[in-house]
Amino acid sequence: MKQEKSPLLSDDAQPGLEDSINDAAVPVPIRQTRPYLAAAVILITTFLNYACIFLPSAFYPQQAALKKGSKAGTEVGLVISSIQISTLVGSGLVGIHMKTVGAKFLIISGAFLVGGCTVIFGFLGKIEDWRSFFGLSMAIRLIAGFGEAAFDTTTAALMLTMFPSHTATAWSLIELCIGLGFILGTPIGGALFDAGGFWCPFVVTGGMVLLFIPLLLFVLPDIQSHFQHQEPQTQLSMWQLARMLPVVMVCLTFFLVYAIWGFARSQYPFYLDQTFHWSATHIGLIFLGTGVIYVVIAPGVGLLVDATRPRLVMILGLLMEGCGMILIGPISLFSILSPQPWLQYVGMALFSIGLCMAVIPAAPDIISCATSRGYEGGMSLNGLVSGLLSIFTSLGGIGGAVFGGVLTDSFNFLLAGTVFFFVLCAQLMVMVAVTVAELCQADIVVLPDVKH
C-alpha cells in the first residue's frame, strides 16, 4: 500500500507550483532541521518531567513520617503511586480527544501542570498539620499526573509522526529519557534536599520544566494544520484499534512486562534484605544498574526494531525476561539452584535487557498492524497508539504491585515470581502462535471488519 509522507515532515512542497491542490489547503512544511530541534527539546523536557516524578523517593517517606509522628508507609505509597492513577485516566482521554483539544495545547499545558505542581509541592514542607500535608500531597500529585498524561501521550505521538520511517528509534529515545529520569531523579532529589531543604529539589527541577515551555512554543510544528488536512477515512477510534487481535496481544504483553516490573520493584527489595541482608544502598545499586542497562541498550534496540520485524524482537525480549526471572531468587520452579548474589546480578541484567526489547517494539508493531489493514498513519493514529500503551503501562504497574504484594503476603516472593513466570510463558506462546499465523497469512488473525 502506498504510504503518504506525513505533512509534518514534508519538505518537497514548493510555493508557487501550479497544480490541482489548493495552496491554502497545504500545511506549511517544516524546515529540514526543525524536527530534530523539536525532538531535542521534547526529549529534554521528558527527562525533566520524569525527574520531577521520582524526586520525592529519596526524602519524602522520612519527611512524611516526621509530620505524622509515626510510620506512614501506606500514605507514602498512596502519594507516590497516585500519579499513575491520574495518568491511567488521562492517557486514554488525551489519545481519544487529541485532535479536538489540540495537540500543541496539550503539550504546553501538560508541561505547565507538571512544572507548576512540582514547584507548589516544594512549599508543602511548611505545613505542620499531617492531614493537610497528606491531602495536599495527594491532590498535587494527582493533578501532575494529568499533566504528565497530556505531555507524554501527545509528544510520543508527535515524535512518531515526525519520524515515520524510524518509529522504533524515536520510541527508544523517549524510553531513554524516561529511564534517565527514573535513574537520576531520586539522586538529584536527594542531593538538592541536602543542599537546600524540602523546597529546593521541587522548585529547581519544576522551574526548569517551566523554563522549557517557551522553547516548546517556538520549536513545535503546526500540528493542528496536520490534523485539518488528514483524510476523513483514515480516522480510527481507540475501540476499533483495540479490537485487532495482534494489537490485543501487544497490549497484553505491554501490561504483563510492566506488571512484572511493578511486582519486582515493590517486593524484590524485601526479599534481598531478608535473604542476603543487603543494605539499602546495595539494593538501590541493583535497581540503578537495571536502569542503566535499559538506557544504554534502548537506542540500539530501536535501530534493531527499525531494521527487522518488531514482533520478533518483542518475542526475543520476552524470552530474555523469562530467563532473567528464572535466576532472580531463583524462582521456586528451579529450587535446585540455591540463592546466590551473582544470580541476582545476572538475572536482573537479563530482565532489564528483555524488558527493553519487549517495550520498544510495541508502538511500531501496533502502527504496522493498523496501516496493514488500510488505515493511514499520522498524528491521530499515533495519538491513539500512545494513549493505549500508556493505559496498559499504568494498569500493569498498579496491578503488578498490588497482585504481587497479595501473592507474596499469602505465600512468598519465590512462589509469587513463579506465578508471574508461568503467565509470561503463556503470553509468549500465544504471541508466537499469533505471529506464525500472521506470517502464514492465516485467517484466524483477521477479525470481522472494524472499519465503519
Outline the secondary-structure elements.
Blueprint: H1 34-54, H2 60-68, H3 73-101, H4 103-121, H5 130-162, H6 167-196, H7 199-211, H8 213-219, H9 223-228, H10 238-242, H11 245-276, H12 280-307, H13 310-327, H14 341-359, H15 362-372, H16 379-410, H17 413-439
Q: What features would you describe in this structure?
A:
With 452 residues, this protein is mainly alpha-helical. 75% of the residues lie in helices and 0% in strands. It is built from 17 helices and no strands. It has helices at 34-54, 60-68, 73-101, 103-121, 130-162, 167-196, 199-211, 213-219, 223-228, 238-242, 245-276, 280-307, 310-327, 341-359, 362-372, 379-410, 413-439. α11 packs parallel to α16 (379-410) and α13 runs antiparallel to α17 (413-439). The longest helix has 33 residues, at 130-162. The chain is globular and about 65 Å long. Residues 1-33 and 442-447 have low confidence and may be disordered.
- β content, as a range? under 5%
The end-to-end span amounts to 20 Å
Q: Give the overall pLDDT as a whole number.
A: 82
The parts where pLDDT drops under 50 for at least 5 residues are 1-33, 442-447
Main sheet: strands, sense, barrel = none
